[in-house]
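Internal tracking record. Fields below are filled automatically when a chain is submitted to the structure queue. Please do not edit lines marked as system-generated. If the sequence contains nonstandard residues, flag them in the REMARKS field before resubmitting.
Queue: standard
Priority: normal
Entity type: single polypeptide chain
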Amino acid sequence: MAFQEEAAYALASWERFDAAISDELLLAITSAFVLVAVADGDLARSEIDRFTALLRAHAKALAPLDIDRVDHLFRDLGGALLSEPTIGRQRALACISAVEGNPVHCELVRSAAEIALAADNRELAAEREVLGEICDAMGIAQR
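SYSTEM-GENERATED OUTPUT FOLLOWS
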């Protein structure tokens, strides 16, 4: 894919995400999870499954929630981040920073990022670094 096509795809993916999900917490959780998941340059099936399981486990707290729709958007965002990381990283960190100042939401977002860190049964330095950026965006400490 040419750079302009990759940028257009990434922007369109984020616009679909923003249009489909209005809940600030869900935006932040999804953004954090996908940032960590693609930090190694790949989006593994185990990471997608773990994200979907996380949503299902917290469906009542995130209601109303179309898990299948969010799952599709998650995959789309993963592809967008892999094809054009600069645009995606900026958008994801903006979504994450929106929960700054809400300790409960910050903890949920940090927990989602930590789950993503372990989702493919290996922890890489790049993923740990992204977790630090996520915590910085929320103004909290990394554990």
